Structure formats: structure tokens, C-alpha cells
Write a sequence for this structure.
């Protein structure tokens, strides 16, 4: 998969999760009590949030696939994938706005023009940028960790596949023959007479 494919496979889930966290926090902050919050969520078409854990599992799998692909790219020593901040900054608020309008539109059966003036909507929209920035930082950190693990794995693989040292041939020590005249002895013959 290309570098951009890996980046988008990581960016999209993190942007969606960040948007949902900002969405949930906005409704928590905008409504004071648990019963009031439950009533406000039911009134605005948020009944689908019961399926959030399943969706979170799907997004987590996509993030793990992206990290696995980046790890494989690092083992192959290809250029690293780097997320851009702009998709996070644009995608999270756009997802939030679309989500709010779809929730209300599907629940009420008409396009909700007044949703943009509600406190929970404005607070949720304001919370999207900090969560988008956090998602961007998490994406960079996760890619860096995957890249580092890939490099370690590549180095380990290279060390294991390096040819083993060939045994050296045995060293043979031979004595060289030095001629007798070179040692100061005369030629062969009887010993000199003793006096």
C-alpha cells in the first residue's frame, strides 16, 4: 500500500474517534444531569450511540492494520508515512457538523436549520480542534513507534541472515632449513683435533 494509503487508513479512524469524543464531551458539558442528558440525546436522535463500542472496535482494527503496514514499510526500508495536520483539522469538524445534521434530520424527518444555534452544537464544534490536534499527535506517535519497531526488526533480520564467519584454514608452522654453514659450522667431516 502507498504511503498516502497508510496515512489515510490511520487518519480517518483517529479523526472519527476524536470527533466522537468531542461530540460526547460537548453533550456532557452542555447538559447538567444524567437524566437531562439522556432526554436531550433521545430527543436529538442519538439512539445509535449504543453501537459505539462495536464501531470503536472496527476503527481500532483499521488503526492496527495501518500500523502493521507502516511496520512492513520500515522493514523494507521505504520512505516513512507522515500524517498531515490539515486533514485532521478539517475532517473532525466536518464530520461533527454532518453528524449533527444527519442525526436531527433522520430523527425529525426534516433538515434541522436551528441545530447550529444550540449550545451543545457550538461547544462540540469548538471541541473538535483540540481533539483533532490530539488525534494528529497520536497518529504521529503511533507511526513513529511502528517505524522504530520495523527498523529494529529489519536490523535483527539482517543480523540473523549475515553469513557466518568462515573457519580459517589451520596455520601450519614449518621450520625452515637453515644451511649448516650459515650457523657457523664447517663442512662435514671429522671433528677438529683436540690439543
Amino acid at each position: 500500500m502507498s504511503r498516502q494509503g497508510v496515512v489515510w487508513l490511520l487518519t480517518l479512524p483517529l479523526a472519527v474517534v476524536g470527533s466522537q469524543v468531542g461530540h460526547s464531551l460537548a453533550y456532557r458539558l452542555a447538559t447538567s444531569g444524567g437524566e437531562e442528558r439522556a432526554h436531550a440525546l433521545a430527543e436529538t436522535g442519538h439512539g445509535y450511540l449504543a453501537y459505539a463500542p462495536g464501531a470503536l472496535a472496527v476503527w481500532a482494527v483499521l488503526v492496527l492494520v495501518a500500523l502493521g503496514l507502516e511496520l512492513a514499510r520500515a522493514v523494507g526500508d521505504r520512505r516513512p508515512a507522515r500524517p498531515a495536520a490539515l486533514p485532521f483539522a478539517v475532517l473532525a469538524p466536518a464530520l461533527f457538523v454532518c453528524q449533527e445534521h444527519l442525526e436531527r434530520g433522520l430523527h425529525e424527518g426534516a433538515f434541522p436549520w436551528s441545530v447550529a444555534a444550540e449550545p451543545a452544537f457550538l461547544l462540540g464544534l469548538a471541541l473538535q480542534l483540540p481533539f483533532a490536534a490530539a488525534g494528529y499527535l497520536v497518529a504521529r506517535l503511533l507511526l513513529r513507534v511502528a517505524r522504530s519497531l520495523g527498523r529494529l526488526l529489519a536490523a535483527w533480520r539482517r543480523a540473523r541472515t549475515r553469513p557466518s564467519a568462515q573457519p580459517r584454514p589451520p596455520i601450519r608452522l614449518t621450520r625452515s632449513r637453515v644451511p649448516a654453514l650459515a650457523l657457523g659450522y664447517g663442512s662435514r667431516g671429522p671433528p677438529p683435533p683436540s690439543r
Summary: The mean pLDDT is 78.
